[in-house]
TrEMBL record:
<feature type="transmembrane region" description="Helical">
    <location>
        <begin position="320"/>
        <end position="339"/>
    </location>
</feature>
<feature type="transmembrane region" description="Helical">
    <location>
        <begin position="266"/>
        <end position="285"/>
    </location>
</feature>
<dbReference type="GO" id="GO:0022857">
    <property type="term" value="F:transmembrane transporter activity"/>
</dbReference>
<feature type="transmembrane region" description="Helical">
    <location>
        <begin position="178"/>
        <end position="197"/>
    </location>
</feature>
<feature type="transmembrane region" description="Helical">
    <location>
        <begin position="21"/>
        <end position="46"/>
    </location>
</feature>
<keyword id="KW-1133">Transmembrane helix</keyword>
<feature type="transmembrane region" description="Helical">
    <location>
        <begin position="233"/>
        <end position="254"/>
    </location>
</feature>
<dbReference type="InterPro" id="IPR011701">
    <property type="entry name" value="MFS"/>
</dbReference>
<keyword id="KW-1003">Cell membrane</keyword>
<keyword id="KW-0812">Transmembrane</keyword>
<dbReference type="Pfam" id="PF07690">
    <property type="entry name" value="MFS_1"/>
</dbReference>
<feature type="transmembrane region" description="Helical">
    <location>
        <begin position="85"/>
        <end position="105"/>
    </location>
</feature>
<feature type="transmembrane region" description="Helical">
    <location>
        <begin position="383"/>
        <end position="403"/>
    </location>
</feature>
<feature type="transmembrane region" description="Helical">
    <location>
        <begin position="152"/>
        <end position="172"/>
    </location>
</feature>
<protein>
    <submittedName>
        <fullName>Major Facilitator Superfamily protein</fullName>
    </submittedName>
</protein>
<keyword id="KW-0472">Membrane</keyword>
<feature type="transmembrane region" description="Helical">
    <location>
        <begin position="292"/>
        <end position="314"/>
    </location>
</feature>
Amino acid sequence: MVSPRRGPGPARPSLGRDRSFLTYWISQAVSAAGDSFAYLAVPLLVLHATGSVARMGLLTAVAGVASVGAGVFGGVLVDRFDRRTLMIVGDLVRLVLYGLIPLAWLAGPQVWLLFVVLPVCEAVGMVCRVASVTAVRNLVDRERITEANGRLHATYAAAAVVGPLLAGLVSARFGPAAAIGVNAGSFALSAVGLRLVRLRRPDPDAATPPRERPLAEFLAGARFLWRQPVLRSLTALLAVFIFLTFGLTDVLIYHVKHDLGGSDRTVGTVLGLATLGTVAGALLVAPLRRRLGFGATWIGAVGVSGVAVAGLGLAGTVPILTVVAAVHLCCVSVGGICSMSLRQEITPDHLLGRVTSAFWSTHFSLGPAGAALLTWAAGRYGAASVCLVAGAGCLLVAVGGCCGPVRRAGSAPVAGERDLRPVPG
């Protein structure tokens, strides 16, 4: 359902009483909780069936390639088609595909099926993620966008804490395939919730840009990134950071299972508790940015993350590993929210979907290769060596941030900084 954008008149109810927002919030929370089941269950399923961390990394790499490929045109789809419909269709597709896995596993391990299902689901998920970011503008009043984003991201973080804990319990009791079945069911609930959401039409006074060919429309977002100095530098630095960390979850799971002798329940507990770092990062990022400015906050987060990544390989006990992983995820949260907020602040409205798509697909482009290399190296040389090298690389990314426009973003207000001016799309 799409309702017209509200004009001058009585104020809309608070977000706590806004039925459409509450429905959207709940549906996204359910979907995020289900995704966190797959986040743990899919690597465990491969590890149980093959015993190979390299095979885990290969699957992560293939899925990452599909996600990046979908990101190329995801922003164009989101800008040109109904966002709610795209998200509902995406939920239904993932319901069917993820639902096939536990059914197929009844006849025994079918690892080949994961290499079919996961890439398609990741591609669909990328389009849905871009749609979910842009849909908030059509869901709440402009002055409440920040509040709405805050509630949504806090919920995603909470789901990421609870999900792996529950997924570990389900996997230990019924097997990883059952945990993936829970993920499939979450998409059904999400689709039902989205069907009840009412999005408002875009502002009728806003100019609608003319349609172009899909490639030309995507390049409009890429051109914006290239012409904006800070975003251009961030995109390049994040591409290297993602290359170094994209396969880190697989390495962490392998480290817990292979080196520390942990069970599936232990893996779920480690990932769940470590994700509390994401919640902490979400709470810390605003005061840190106000006090230190964008550049210092982002560079500091990447630098501390590099130290934590190196520490993952040196952690000899599960509690220490959990704390170090939480520090890493806290820093990733701070850096990620910083870069997302900056992008929203300086990108013209009509380009936001395409810039988001171009930004994600570009800086994730090296992730699949990194995941394959990281997990292969962990199987051959051990998790400790791989984490030390990856951590050193992350520290070099932080040094790179000190040498360009990211550092100069400084502590001045965003609107007043020369390098943060919006540029023509």
